[in-house]
Each structure stands twice: as structure tokens, then as C-alpha cells.
């Protein structure tokens, strides 16, 4: 009794995901699936510096904060 319901649910979920993937894809466009634009190289460079710089600077800033606490 539970098996037919599970089978229908699984098929419905799979169809929804396949349609979602197919409808949003333009097929082979570089950078299409990225959450940021790659067309402005200076803006992209600034984003990369901020993203990786914040991760590399965090331990030093946290240590400094801890050492300056009273």
C-alpha cells in the first residue's frame, strides 16, 4: 500500500527536477551556473581578492581581537 505511493512520489520528484534542470540551462555557456558575473574582469578580480582575503585574514584578526581584550 505504501509502495505505490512512494513510487508515484519518487517519479513526480524526479520529473520536477529534470524539468527544472532542463528549463534553466542554455547549454554549454561558460560561467552560466556561477552566482556572480564573469564578464567584468576588474569586478571579478575585486570579488576574488575580498573573498579569499577575508578567509586568509580572519585568523589574524581574531587573534588580534583576543590579544587586545582586557
UniProtKB/TrEMBL annotation:
The chain crosses the membrane at residues 44-62. The keyword Mitochondrion applies. Pathway: Energy metabolism; oxidative phosphorylation. The keyword Membrane applies. Its main location: mitochondrion. One of its GO terms (biological process) is mitochondrial electron transport, cytochrome c to oxygen. It is a single-pass membrane protein. Pfam families: COX7C. Keywords: Membrane, Mitochondrion, Mitochondrion inner membrane, Transit peptide, Transmembrane, Transmembrane helix. It is found in: Mitochondrion inner membrane. One of its GO terms (cellular component) is respiratory chain complex IV. Belongs to the cytochrome c oxidase VIIc family. This is Cytochrome c oxidase subunit 7C, mitochondrial.
Amino acid at each position: 500500500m505504501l509502495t505505490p505511493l512512494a513510487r508515484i512520489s519518487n517519479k513526480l520528484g524526479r520529473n520536477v527536477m529534470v524539468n527544472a534542470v532542463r528549463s534553466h540551462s542554455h547549454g554549454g555557456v561558460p560561467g552560466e551556473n556561477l552566482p556572480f558575473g564573469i564578464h567584468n574582469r576588474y569586478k571579478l578580480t575585486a570579488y576574488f581578492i575580498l573573498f579569499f582575503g577575508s578567509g586568509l585574514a580572519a585568523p589574524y584578526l581574531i587573534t588580534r581581537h583576543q590579544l587586545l581584550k582586557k
